[in-house]
Fold this sequence. Notes:
The protein is α/β, with parallel strands linked by helices. The chain has helices spanning 13-25, 47-57, 84-93, 121-124, 138-146, 167-174, 213-220, 234-250, 278-285, 301-306, 315-324, 349-366; strands at residues 4-6, 30-32, 39-43, 66-68, 98-103, 125-126, 129-133, 151-155, 180-182, 194-199, 202-207, 222-228, 262-268, 309-312, 332-334.
Amino acid sequence: MTTEVLKPDERGFSGAARRAADVLARGGLVVFPTETVYGLAARADRPEGVQRLRALKTREADKAFTVHLGDRDEAVRFLTQLPGLAKRLMRKAWPGPLTLILPVADPTSTPVMQSLDGSVLDVLYFEQTVGLRCPDDPVAAEMLSRAGGPVIASSANLAGSPPPWTGDAALRDLNGHVDLLIDTGRTRYAKPSTIVRITDAAFEILREGVYDAGMVDRLSKLRVLFVCTGNTCRSPMAEGLARTMLARRLGCSDGDLPARGVVVQSAGTAGGSGGAADHAIAVMRKRGIDIADHASSPLTVELIRQSDYVFAMTSGHRSRVLDMVPGAESRVSRLLINDDVRDPLGGSEEEYERCALTIEEALNRRLEEIEL
Length: 372
């Protein structure tokens, strides 16, 4: 067998992805790029491809492979339920270098198995779990989306060889053993994905890769972020109020929220100087909420990416958030759905009180949207 090699430029990605999908549909094997290392793929419902993949990887017949997804929304097809922790990690880390091992109580009842032969069960599931990965690479995403059936994959190397992060390295191991190799050069991270097992509301890191344990822990937290301009008036008041309300829902103190996996923060598009305004401190103190030690923080890309919910005080703040992280659109909204929260800066304590009441009323509605 001669391995076909495609080296597409950016304009040729779609053609290469279509070619790869055709090869997979015929039961062939495809080496493809991801953001971590090169992968070796087969269609899970093509027995000849699965058998060849098992032989190359010396994988036992009852051991499943990781399912690769072209879009994170496809994950539900392989699950009977989606734990909140897994949903947070998918929302914030996918597409990206994170593989999730998820519990599936009854794999036969999953949507994907309703349309597949039962022989595929052991290809996708192992001991009531499924491994899911959503690569952050344009070729991989398009190939997987066009594949026409579930795609399983492993790293594109023979046993004993290191996972390859260049097409040339993959070809040295697999030339003549696979039908097609798509070579786009060196991968972005040149490092494997991080593998995390989800159990109930907890996680276990099975392999550290691009993400270390600290990053996974940060991504796993339910994070709520409030954004205004200077982070001295509106967003600190919203942060203090939200902490109190969420703690009440969980039956714990404000200080215990992080231990319960909940982090509430605030930042400003022009933040980073000073503390909370005196009137803001005063109106919060009347509610038994202490924000006197608050320090203004600037809005950062990292803060946005880590957050599950971002509530902006105005449409302008929302636009700024999306300018910084365009992919966060589904997580960003104005606190008041149909209006802006006006800035009380420079006003009287009464104006701050009216602003606090507006925020409080809005939070009573918006925090109901948050899954704890």
